[in-house]
Amino acid sequence: MNDRNDRYERGMKVRRRVLGDAHVDRATAQATPVDADFQRWITESVWSELWSRPHFDLRTRSIITIALLAALGNEELELHLKAAKNTGATPTDIAEALMHVAVYAGVPAANRAFAMLKRLEREDEANDG
């Protein structure tokens, strides 16, 4: 196997561990010739080369990612809030990170993220009960 395939396989393993098989299977199935190279690049670069680096564990990377996405008002925040349970990041961890978002990126950004976190927790509780 060549280095590029090794990076892809390593990245796919981390991507599945963090985001879950269902999400990755959907993203892979929805790829078209327009974005197939982009999907491969994400897997090789983001998931293999960044998320697999040894310094931070997946929990820490998840918290950092959530804070950044919240600060930017990025639509992928919901995906990473859902994925946090796969990395060991707790709602308390996320709330602490969102306090930093409020100070350094603005209260409205943190408020939107807290609202999303609370909605997802309610949905989880409804699905569990």
User: What is the N-to-C order of secondary-structure elements (H for helix, E for strand)?
Assistant: HHHHHHH
Overall average pLDDT: 95
Number of helices: 7
Q: Which structural class best describes the helix and strand composition?
A: mainly alpha
CATH level-3 fold name of the largest domain: AhpD-like
Looking at the structure, what is the overall shape? globular
Q: Unreliable runs, pLDDT <50, ≥5 residues?
A: none
Whole-number tally of structural domains: 2
- Helical percentage: over 70%
Look at the structure and give the CATH class of the largest domain: Mainly Alpha
CATH architecture label of the largest domain: Up-down Bundle
What is the oligomer described by this structure? single chain
Largest sheet: none
CATH superfamily of the largest domain: AhpD-like
Distance between the termini: 46 Å
Strand content: under 5%
